[in-house]
Please model this.
Amino acid sequence: MKFWWPQCEAVIANLEAYRLTGEQRYFDRFKLVADWAWGHLRDPDFPEWFGYLHRDGTVAQHAKGNLFKGPFHIPRMLVKCDVLSRGTDWKD
Model:
């Protein structure tokens, strides 16, 4: 299974590693994980992420909120990435 929250944490961790070290490999990994997450977890019809995917990236559970998936990890990721990106010399 691929869960939404480790993907969010991986996005944050790689962007933080890039900010701290300036090593391109962390920015490349940040882009790789972020692009995968937005491409597979995001519901193209409604503005929310699916929480549970199979390893091949297909949706395993269509519910976007339940007792275990609340509104924490995605907004946290967005805010942290915004904060981390301020003042960074972005190379794309």
